[in-house]
Known about the structure:
Elements: E1 12-15, H1 25-43, H2 47-60, H3 70-77, H4 81-87, H5 98-107, E2 111-116, H6 120-130, E3 138-141, H7 152-161, E4 169-173, H8 176-185, E5 189-193, E6 210-211
Parallel strand pairs: 1-2, 1-4, 2-3, 4-5, 5-6
Helix pairs in contact: 1-2
Amino acid sequence: MPTQLPWHQIDTVLLDMDGTLIDLHFDSHLWQQLVPERYAERLELSLAEAKARIDTCYHAVSGTLDWYCVDYWSQTLGLDIRALKQEILEKIQWRPNAIPFLTELRAAGKQLVLFTNAHPASLSVKEARLGLASHLDLMVSTHELGWSKESQHCWQALAERLAFDPARTLFVDDSERILQAAADFGIGYQLAIQTPDSQQRPQQIIRFPAIHDYAELLPLSR
């Protein structure tokens, strides 16, 4: 699908964090490798058995705020998730050309809002590492709103908190399910990220325009 966007019709840009602005590799490594390893050690399980048990837990709350909640997983798995994050801080990295993209959006006068399902504890770790706030007008965690982005209640709550015209808003995310929720709410433009994790193969995006790299959109005036 073409990725050229009608920037003159867009006033606000809502941006997901993990897999959209930040390389998803940090979270993939944490949840798919480090957490199962430590869980296996704690319960004296094989790694395969640990992963199977954790996957069952993951699927049980997929798409809900609990899935994104550091405290929920610390309690459920008996692991200090905050401490585990501190062990792999070097993996927190911007996605390619994210900063030039944000810089051009700001120069063009767009309202820039980080809109993430990440728990505030996760957001604070990444803000401390990358200085996200300096590139944005506002950062909103859905945990402040009470629902995840998969829910229409979340979008309604955002509209009550943030002054924006949905029809003149672009939403960028790496999840088709969440992009569809945005479209259902009335967000005018959606853009998907095909390579949220730099260490994994690109994902197939069917329903929305998609990019591999923000360089594909630069300069905005092209």
